[in-house]
## 1
Amino acid sequence: MVRIIEVGPRDGLQNERETISLSARLDLIFALAEAGLAEQEFGSFVSPKAVPQMAGTDEVAAGLPTGLTGWALVPNVKGMERALASGCRNAALFTAASEDFVQANIRMSIAESLEVFAEAAGLFRSRVPEGRLRGIVSTAFECPFVGRVDPEAAVAVAHELLELGVDEVVLADTIGTAGPSEVKRLAAAASDIPKEKLAWHFHDTRGTAVANVWTCLELGYRSFDSAAGGLGGCPFAPGAGGNLATEDLVYLLEREGFRTGVDLELLARATLPVLDLLGREPESKVQRAVLAGRS
Ligand code: COA
Ligand code: ZN
């Protein structure tokens, strides 16, 4: 079984120019859950001035489908308070491997972000001891401002997050530039982190995401983030394209004999209302093939 964390309702929607309604966000989450995506990053508790698309995540949290493992993205203590007040049981804290990127994204240094996270994680643990925390290392391969990132630098941040008590670390190719050899180098640098404590987050900006996932699978990793319909990006990372499409990921996995628990037909249809609202065509090749009846 491979674990898929669906991030379209957050990473996907936050990068769209159009802000869609709370009910359309919830409809998407329900359709994705119906397709079998039992873990979803459903929104973020960030400043609505910084990311207007994620305003009202508090209300989305209140309306989630029963049984869903919902992850909330949280940048600071205020965000953690909002997440806890909305009943969230799972939270993802995000920093980066590059100073310039963290500064642009959450207006802190890496060290400051880790201090803030220690406080946010403490608050979380005191209120939901059974809850789970992820720590995201953005720009783990390359930063849009300063270029390539030393794998050791990314892994150092991963270790700091684990020391703060996160249950897993997510290594993110935020701008979608990495290829398989870089994945191998980063995995080698992270070899002392247990495989079940690492998840991978690829963007498909240059078409390398599926190759990178395959490399991770061969190395024994089993957790991946992806966004249905290939929605996504990051408004703070110039040039970041869409996420790895969940359809492309599910197809690869199932075709190669890994179970995902996802119904590809339902998944291919799940994003259609949102794509319609956004005035976009499906970008995932697999989604287009399934919709055309050529699956
Ligand atoms: N939720 C809602 N509002 C928040 C908030 C949160 N988690 N954190 C801060 N704010 C508000 C403050 O209350 C303050 O509001 P005011 O102007 O009405 O008084 C304002 O935001 C500024 O607060 P400050 O602490 O000075 O924050 P900042 O301007 O340094 O911005 C972040 C820091 C983290 C809040 C902001 O950069 C942010 O939300 N970034 C998120 C980016 C993102 O989502 N990236 C996704 C990954 S690509
Ligand atoms: Zn992303």
## 2
Amino acid sequence: MLTGAGISAESGVATFRDALTGLWAQYRAEDLATPEAFARNPALVWDWYRMRRQMVARAEPNAGHLALVEMEAQIPEFVLITQNVDGLHQRAGSSRPIELHGNITRARCSREDTPVDHWDETADSPPRCLACGAFLRPDVVWFGELLPLEALRAAEMAARHCDVFLSVGTSNLVEPAASLPWTAAAAGAEVAVLNVSMDGQRRGPAIEHLVGPAGELLPALVQATWPKR
Ligand code: OAD
């Protein structure tokens, strides 16, 4: 199972590429989500992530997130891979999703990469690492950066060895995550893309398309597979 920003859309969290509401329609990624942007203007970048962190804190997991918790309970080998940085899968109750792009609720030292869970938001922007004095940065993957190696390996392994691979609420444009459904298909898995719109999705003979909101499709899938009396 691979998820993207679309699964959190029904929680009120903006996606990245939806034409009017997507973050990249309103902001320039180069100004906010690259190491160069952080070097140029760390306060601007930190404050933008702080705004998003506050929005995410106000959001609640939706029926799509909860359906994946149910799937995990029903399928012992279930693996959840997410590109989302909002932490809503964990808050819904999914155990240990593989986070390919990090998590905005965490920060790390921009010099030594040490993870930091707590910091003083009223202090400097960005706050400083208590150990070395460097700026803290959000614990996310920016454009031009490598994905966390262990997470990527685990995701690729899951894609290569699964029987069924669902790609939910993602434009499937950003590599290497975008290749995971194709890796699964090449290894013989049944692959389905679940999305409100198939515009821009790569097509392939082995890929099924289910059109609709994740918050409706996923609960319907769970109900059809494990009917509750
Ligand atoms: P995108 O914004 O690129 O794509 C969101 C997808 O969700 C689109 O295909 C929408 O059609 C779909 N969608 C919107 N609402 C939906 C709903 N209710 N149900 C189902 N689908 C819905 O977001 P991602 O694919 O997640 O990277 O973007 C990938 C990466 O690009 C992100 O992780 C982020 C971004 O730059 C980093 O932060 C490193």
